[in-house]
Amino acid sequence: MKKRLFSIFVAMGMIISALSIESDFVPATTAYAEKEASSGVIIDDEYLIPDGLGYFTYYVVVATNNTGSDIAISADFLAKDKTGVVLRRVNDYSDAVKNGQQFILYGQFSQESIRKAASFEYDYTIAPTDKCAYSQVSVNAQKNGHLVELSATNYSKYDIQGVGVRTIFLKNGKPIAFDTVNIADLGTTFRSGSTNYQVVGMNVSDYDDVVVTYTSVSNIPLPSDT
Fold first, then answer.
1. pTM of the entire predicted model
2. 28, 88, 185, 217: most buried, per Cβ within 10 A?
3. Which helix or strand (DSSP H or E) is residue 39 part of?
4. CB 210 within 8 Å of CB 148
């Protein structure tokens, strides 16, 4: 159930390899979570992506939910120095990932906090959920100048908690930037039948492809979501 949008670009298969580090700022190694094999969360790609402005580096994990059920997932991302001391710990989560869906989790580190980083690690926990609204919404993307315009529609008869969109920008197959946005009517409320818009890529200009994933969670159980 991987959804790769932005069809005006040439479609890609698997993005790069099982492990990719892209950074001019942080010489580092990366450690996978040991839970991957037993949990059914498959890691497709990992990247370290500087923001281009010198403020942040994003540790971006592209994964697929092959657990057999919809899940909520929470991940801790750690930056360590060469002695193993934790320099910074950050967290990201998704309250609802559809079974079979590709999704993105990320850790945002300030450049100042990881100047002495020698390695990055992550660990995650998962739990089943019946509030996944992934099948209740549609998301479309198109290029307008250097921006990517996103539109989302809530086809559910219920309000949901917005649509969390995460985008990797690529040049010649390599990730060069990362952006994220939430699409909703007001705050995190996305009303039934509503269509809303956002843009990503404000600080990105030279790219030739994008990977877009999204998640959405309902306020109530949705046992019939397929």
1. 0.84
2. 217
3. helix 36-39
4. yes
